[in-house]
Amino acid sequence: MSFNIALSGLNAAQKDLDVTSNNIANVNTVGFKESRAEFVDVYAASLLASGKTKVGDGVLTADVAQQFSQGSIQFTNNALDLAVTGNGFFATVPELGSLETSYTRAGQFKLNADNFVVNSQGGHLLGFPVNPDGSSASVSLSTAEPIRIPTASGAPTKTSEVDVRMNLPAGDSYIAGAPGNFDPDDPLTFNNSTSVTIFDSLGDSHVMTYFFVKDDPNTNPNEWMLFAAVDGKPINLVDDSTVPPSATGIIGGNVSGPLQPTGGVGGARLTFNASGDFISQIPTLADGGIITEDFTNHLPNGADILQRVQIDFNLDPTGPNPNEPTQFASNFEVTALNQDGLAVGRLTGIDIGTDGLVRATYSNGTSQPLSRIAMVNFANEQGLTQIGNTGWKESIVSGEALAGEAGSGTFGTINSSALEQSNVNLTTELIDLISAQRNFQANSRALEVDNQLNQTILQIR
């Protein structure tokens, strides 16, 4: 019996050495979780045996339990390096369409040839689908999909509105013959001008210029005419309430409605009071805008010719508004000139928030939410089945996978450009290694003594 006891001690010491050696070997493995050998004594007795004199039967390895304590965070320069701070695992599948989900804390991700986010073993990182505002459409693991970074450029947006704020100089001189002699190519026929870059439906840029002509102060005091041109070619300004969106070719001045035709170009009239406040405009819309005719004669590149641009002066009928134009005795000054169109954008970067939201940014200043990294937790982490490559599988002991968003509930947050290091404490492991070695030596000595006793007994005559 003493042989068996000593042998069980040797086996236990060897197991302890193996576990400690494995921890030391993986001290630099990203996402690795150290293990601990747990032992129990063996005690067997029959119903009628005397428990007072029963000696134990040795030791048994009860479990090699993984310790899921937090590892230290190491920061990197790769946005796809991810570290979880707190509870939770990344979920991956070996290939598209697979339901064989595995879980890991190792966040060394990269892009494969098809622009999917994968780890070193080719496992596809799963994420929840998101709405245009970035909120998760679903947080069920069954709806999670492999995350893919788009290669397409950001879609362009045609300009539909331009917001203008400026000061028109009250002291400007009236140009004889104005506004009837307006010519965009002759700077002597207008007082001031300013330009803004607008975009068509294909993302091509165009220069839209606004010309301001002071009207005759004897007949129309404190009034200015506004004209517009796209790429140097005049474009008519119309009243959206009287001219249908498809109207084209409004050139020459014979148009119904409040359009102010002058010199063959349809313009708009801006009126100020004696205090320099903006009080009215013709054409007048409910929201204070002035609309161009469609771009039939201005877009030769195949873009949407029905595009129309609203010029918004933020007219407030109730009184002066700081967003309105003014007519003060100062220089011509443009304080705001903003348009809502966008050029074609190329992918410039990927941002991953602490909540796991993956967002693509484009060169045209836009960004687009792509997915939200799925986080998974378990009732009993130590019950997970190890599969190698710092990965685990769900088991009966671990309980079912519980999916959710990073930073919500019991789930930890995600750090981009960071990796979670192994949670192995090398100093502690070296001390454990010495202890296991001493334990092995002691049990070896016990086995040797048992052998000597047996030899002594056999030599008795």
Automatic annotation (TrEMBL):
Subcellular location: Bacterial flagellum basal body
One of the protein's GO biological processes: bacterial-type flagellum-dependent swarming motility
Domain Flagellar basal body rod protein N-terminal residue range list: 3-33
Keyword Metal-binding: no
Sorted UniProt keywords: Bacterial flagellum, Cell projection, Cilium, Flagellum
Origin: domain of life: Bacteria
Gene3D superfamilies, alphabetized: Flagellar hook protein FlgE
InterPro entries: Falgellar_hook_FlgE_sf, Flag_bb_rod_N, Flagellar_basal_body_rod_CS, Flagellar_FlgE/F/G, Flg_bb/hook_C_dom, FlgE/F/G-like, FlgE_D2, LlgE_F_G-like_D1
Domain Flagellar hook protein FlgE D2: 176-341
SUPFAM superfamilies: Flagellar hook protein flgE
A GO CC term attached to the entry: cytosol
Residue intervals of the Flagellar basal-body/hook protein C-terminal domain: 416-460
NCBIfam families according to UniProt: FlgEFG_subfam, PRK05682.1-1, PRK05682.1-4
UniProt protein name: Flagellar hook protein FlgE
Organism: Litorilituus lipolyticus
High-level lineage: Bacteria, Pseudomonadati, Pseudomonadota, Gammaproteobacteria, Alteromonadales
